[in-house]
Fold this sequence. Notes:
The chain is α+β, with helices and mostly antiparallel strands and 469 residues long. The chain has 3 domains: 2-131; 164-253, no CATH class; 288-468, Nucleotide cyclase, GGDEF domain (Alpha-Beta Plaits, 2-Layer Sandwich), CATH 3.30.70.1230. The protein has 15 helices and 20 strands. Strand 14 and strand 15 form a beta hairpin. Helix 3 crosses helix 4 and helix 10 packs across helix 11 (318-338).
Amino acid sequence: MDKIETLFDDLRKTADGCSVEAIAHLIREGDDRQLCRINVLTFAATSGINPEKAIGAFLHAARLGLFDLSWTMICPGCAGVMDEGATLKQLNKDEYCCSLCASVHDQPTLDETVEVTFTVNPRVRKIAAHDPDSLPALEYFRQVYWTSAIDLPEHLDQQSDSFAIKYVEVPPGEKANFIIELPSGFIIVFDPVTHGTQFIEVDDNTAGTPQSLSVVFSMMSADKETARLSSGTVELTFENQSNRRILPAVWRANHAQHETLHRRRPFLSAKRLLTNQTFRDIYRTDTMDVGQRLSITSLTFLFTDLKGSTQLYERVGDLAAYDLVRQHFSVLNKIVASEAGAVVKTIGDAVMATFPAPAQALRAALSMREAMHRINTERGSEDLLLKIGIHEGPCLAVISNDRQDYFGQTVNMAARVQGIAVANTIFVTKQIISDAAVGNILQERRLNPIERETALRGIASITLVYEIQ
């Protein structure tokens, strides 16, 4: 434990103090379930901690070896795990199939179907989930198959009584035979280990002859035709051809099952993590492969540039100008991070930053403008005059020039909007203005955007932009 206490001391040097103490308490006192696939947003809410500070603390803790970080491809239907990896590099299939939902999904969208969780490292504390084959059936479903995005009841066993007919455990290479009474309706046989599935349509007619059904489970699960049986007694045989213990469940596809699987809670998405400054600083290019293209449904981009920076160098000299520009970068970086954003790169005297939502970008832009005004007032000159552009939309996350970057028309549009801005103004697109939270900010600050039609370089149609003075 002394070594772990040393890690906590190291964590206190880089992360928020309240978050560190909450993490230390969790590791010391939390039960096994609480330490498996931790949902950082839920943890922050229950601990009364700022979620961005909690995310930063878990990232630093993972870097120190207190936790293992994992990226999970979530089924949008049942919140089951379709794939999992230590990095995004491992989520590289062209499509993903959910056997439980019988659905096929294209490559992951980082804001909707890829979840990031943290599990305590076994060298720090051993929990049952580190040996998943030792978990009882329902705990295996809870801790291994389902993600932290599903809000499961505390007493899942009681909830599942309303739809579960039977849970079976079959050792590797063995068979299980049993007699069961099947009610009419749609029946699902599903194993969370192999993801093997058998659907059964049971009609209302009582069977006049003995019925039997054999289901084979292997690690190479294949589609099976829906079996058709009559209600009543059925002899089921489950054959385990895998090298692991399997846990097939027999469920009624009823309202109770639907309600259990469709309760959702916020989770730390890959998009939110990629736009987190701490993550970008710590992990850099460790997450994705060169050539990998991952979709994001909606991301907000903010571009800044300094007006007249060339004249600034001529006016005050290279050394003074360089120090002033560095000060400007430092201030902008802090403001971006304070609004849950991340600086993607700097280009000359310009900054490209991302934010999970438009309102965060607008608050950052207003803070940037105010900060530059304070610096100018202190210096008694108008040396730092920002031009800011903001746009939101879909994009691709990529690796470019050995760093994580973004590509697409949304990025181009944001850069072009910044290009038409003038000193001390913020130009935004209709997508930003239309956001309800942005509307609240403008109303609170009594800002009245001026609508303009303009032609943007490289954009075929005339674009509506809004100037926020």
